[in-house]
Design brief:
The complex is a heterodimer of chains A (about 230) and B (about 170).
Chain A: H1 3-24, H2 29-46, H3 51-58, H4 64-85, H5 98-115, H6 122-127, H7 131-149, H8 151-159, H9 168-172, H10 176-193, E1 197-201, H11 202-205, H12 214-220, E2 224-228
Parallel strand pairs in A: 1-2
Helix pairs in contact in A: 3-5, 4-10, 7-8
Chain B: H1 7-22, H2 36-44, H3 53-57, H4 59-82, H5 94-99, H6 104-125, H7 129-138, H8 142-162
Helix pairs in contact in B: 2-4, 7-8
Classes of the chains: A mainly alpha (about 230), B mainly alpha (about 170).
Chain lengths: ~230, ~170
């Protein structure tokens, strides 16, 4: 492929990306972009894309990630159930391919602990100037290439048998509402009960006024935290 | 203006966004954030979708996430510059310096390697923190609960052995 051909290929594929989204019926281009902007803003504003939050959780020094994650899942699971009952949405669960889930989960967990990012928080960190994460993204692009290249010959078989798209709602039948409420409330309680620990990065807070700094606030409220320099 | 959102406020806002995205008013689908990587890889490596079954499989979700992630990038940039004031160019995270080492080379090599692992792992499992944890567990999907359990354990074990417990001097 010559450089001109390559350039044309990239342009054609990028246009295709726009057209697919625009015509797919899962929100217009601008709607999807809007969802992304809000997603990025929420994560950045809570600072859960930070190395000290994700790797800090892996080290057992920060618990903001599980608290926020479980709270969000708990609330969403309850309201989503009713949203679907009222006909405004539907379930799109992922298939149960047990060996893929377990092997993939292990590889993903190792990568997440070392990188201190996941694929959704990575772009946010790049947007705020983290060069190491940009290098990680290049690694990720190679990972994506590797997976696509060897999908037929290797990875598809490794993912194993598909046991279907089972959810708690499917298996609990008439009692689905009770089970979903119990599931959601349990997750919300877990989120509240996990002891709050924070690992602050001084460099991250240095542009803030003394009283705006979260570690100053945490100190006032007698919370468990560490500030590293 | 508050410079940081609390975890509970972030959790509530994230729920609202997820519920909106699931609804027919939003996108009538879950949020996911790892399919876009092989999709972008397909574009950047000049891979013809006709030749790769996986590219055909992810043609639609990959494009959707590809657009969404452009938004994520913009959103993160705006809040980092105007609200949290955390935009700056850095290479080695403070936490890495304090609990691992002070080497740029070490951080970049590990970043590349772990970025590779993240995407291979996420694609094997069919989702990541967004697709499995946030969207999948909200739908009470058993697949996502398995993934969630495995990731939590592996994350904590890796963190325990990869980093030093005390600050290194």
């Amino acid at each position: 492929m010559s450089i001109t051909e390559y350039f044309n290929f990239v342009v054609v594929r990028t246009e295709a990306m726009y057209n697919i989204v625009q015509n797919e019926g899962h929100g217009s281009f601008w709607m999807v972009l809007f969802i992304g902007i809000v997603f990025g803003a929420i994560i950045q504003y809570t600072r859960v894309d930070k190395f000290e939050k994700i790797a800090g959780f892996a080290m057992g020094k920060d618990t903001i990630i599980p608290k926020m994650l479980f709270l969000a899942i708990g609330i969403t699971s309850i309201f989503l159930y009713f949203e679907i009952k009222m006909g405004y949405a539907s379930y799109h669960p992922k298939p149960m391919m047990v060996s893929g889930l377990i092997i993939g989960g292990i590889i993903f967990g190792i990568g997440m602990a070392i990188m201190g990012k996941c694929p959704g928080t990575g772009p946010i960190s790049i947007a705020e100037g983290r060069i190491d994460v940009a290098v990680g993204a290049i690694g990720g692009i190679f990972g994506g290439y590797f997976f696509t290249r060897f999908y037929d010959s290797f990875f598809q078989a490794l993912m194993g048998v598909n046991y279907g798209k089972t959810t708690l709602v499917d298996v609990s039948g008439d009692y689905a509402m009770v089970f979903v409420l119990a599931f959601g409330i349990a997750l919300i309680l877990i989120a509240i009960l996990i002891p709050k620990m924070e690992l602050f990065d001084n460099a991250d807070l240095s542009n803030l006024d003394h009283d705006d700094r979260p570690d100053t606030i945490a100190k006032k409220e007698n919370e468990t935290f560490t500030t590293i320099k | 203006m508050k410079r940081r959102l609390s975890w509970w406020m972030g959790g509530i806002l994230m729920s609202i966004l997820l519920l909106f995205t699931f609804s027919v008013l939003g996108a009538d689908r879950p949020i996911g954030a790892s399919t876009y990587v092989p999709y972008y890889a397909g574009i950047l490596f000049g891979m013809d979708p006709q030749e790769y079954t996986y590219l055909q499989k992810i043609e639609k979700p990959g494009a959707w996430e590809g657009v969404m992630l452009l938004g994520v990038f913009i959103g993160g940039f705006i809040t980092s510059v105007f609200i949290t004031k955390t935009f700056r160019l850095t290479i080695v995270p403070t936490g890495w310096k304090v609990y691992k080492n002070n080497s740029v080379k070490s951080r970049l090599l590990w970043s590349f390697f772990s970025g590779f692992l993240l995407i291979v792992g996420a694609r094997l499992a069919g989702g990541c923190t967004s697709g499995h944890f946030l969207s999948g567990m909200s739908q009470t999907a058993f697949s996502s609960m398995i993934f969630g359990g495995v990731v939590l354990v592996t994350l904590l074990v890796t963190g325990r052995f990869f980093y030093s417990k005390e600050e290194i001097k």
